[in-house]
């Protein structure tokens, strides 16, 4: 039975390798599930959630890691880049969890569609020239973001409910876009050193999980201060099944994203992520009765159209 399942899994995996956009689409589904859980069902603080979620994910991924020992994993020709990428992941994950816990699912998901715009900007900074059409698409996309966040359409109050989470989320998305290119740079250096792909994947996953676990525990100690109370344990127990689901989904998502950037360019991947953003916006409006203004809905449409236009060629 296990041999049959293994055979079908390998066939499915090879099918995806030949069509790498499927990795990106499956990652979008994984993120949709994660964002829904974080936004609506998990009530513990973001740093505790990060440490537990990535610890459980690490346990789930042990069979993936066991082919190599620790010394082999950390003996990378670009270890500093691996660590820099993992440290950036601490900021990205914490900011994303904070945003989704602070924003309605519909608004958070709409802002989440901004990543392709940052990918476009990074492409410019890397020396690629953009046509007039793409410049117009970028500018229109940022206008859509402004409409979604209501910035400039109402007084900005840094302590209002939505303004700070939106700004934090935009910063996380810009850093996430940069990390897509960094992963490709890491792969290029590892490939020059004749490192096999399985070992590169192991280094990316293992170092990312270890640094996020340690970083989230340190951040919790520095930024939250309070000791874990009886109420905190009660909250943790109430949503522990959701955290397990989040962790297992996260482990699968980690493998998907690593393989996505092995076979797919970051700009194409960023476009695929609009699937989960659009689905989450509809979920928030239809099932959770979340309010969204005509201005914000118009901004979503403009943003989506600009991104599709940006990726046409």
Describe it for me?
This protein has helices at residues 2-18, 21-40, 46-60, 62-65, 70-74, 79-102, 105-112, 115-125, 132-149, 163-192, 197-223, 230-238, 240-263, 266-272, 274-287, 294-310. The chain is mainly α and 313 residues long. The protein has one domain (31-310). The termini are far apart. Mean pLDDT is 77; it is low at 155-159.
Sum this structure up briefly.
With 313 residues, this protein is an all-alpha fold.
- Work out the radius of gyration: 20 Å
Tell me, rounded to a whole number, the average pLDDT: 77
The largest β sheet comes out as: none
Question: How far is it from the N-terminal to the C-terminal residue, by CA?
Answer: 46 Å
Order of helices and strands: HHHHHHHHHHHHHHHH
> What overall geometry do the principal axes of the alpha carbons give?
globular
Give the proportion of residues in helices. Answer: over 70%
β-strand number: 0
Overall structural class, as computed from helix and strand content, comes to: mainly alpha
């Amino acid at each position: 039975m296990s041999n049959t399942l293994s055979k079908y899994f390998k066939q499915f995996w090879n099918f995806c390798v030949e069509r790498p956009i499927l990795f990106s689409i499956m990652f979008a589904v994984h993120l949709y599930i994660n964002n829904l859980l974080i936004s609506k069902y998990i009530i513990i603080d973001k740093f505790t959630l990060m440490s537990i979620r990535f610890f459980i994910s690490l346990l789930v991924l042990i069979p993936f890691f066991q082919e190599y020992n620790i010394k082999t994993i950390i003996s990378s020709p670009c270890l500093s880049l691996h660590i820099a990428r993992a440290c950036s992941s601490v900021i990205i994950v914490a900011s994303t969890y904070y945003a989704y816990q602070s924003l309605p699912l519909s608004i958070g998901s709409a802002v989440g569609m901004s990543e392709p715009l940052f990918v476009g900007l990074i492409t410019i900074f890397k020396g690629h020239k953009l046509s007039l059409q793409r410049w117009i698409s970028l500018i229109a996309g940022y206008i859509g973001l402004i409409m979604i966040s209501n910035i400039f359409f109402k007084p900005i109050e840094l302590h209002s409910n939505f303004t700070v989470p939106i700004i934090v989320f935009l910063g996380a998305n810009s850093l996430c876009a940069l990390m897509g290119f960094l992963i490709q740079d890491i792969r290029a250096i590892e490939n020059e050193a004749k490192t096999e792909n399985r070992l590169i994947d192991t280094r990316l996953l293992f170092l990312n999980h270890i640094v996020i676990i340690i970083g989230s525990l340190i951040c919790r100690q520095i930024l939250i201060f309070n000791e874990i109370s009886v109420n905190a344990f009660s909250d943790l127990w109430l949503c522990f099944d959701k955290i397990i689901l989040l962790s297992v989904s996260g482990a699968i998502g980690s493998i998907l994203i690593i393989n996505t950037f092995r076979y797919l360019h970051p700009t194409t991947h960023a476009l695929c992520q609009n699937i989960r953003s659009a689905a989450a916006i509809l979920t928030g409006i239809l099932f959770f009765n979340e309010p969204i203004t005509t201005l914000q809905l118009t901004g979503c449409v403009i943003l989506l159209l600009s991104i599709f236009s940006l990726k046409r060629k």
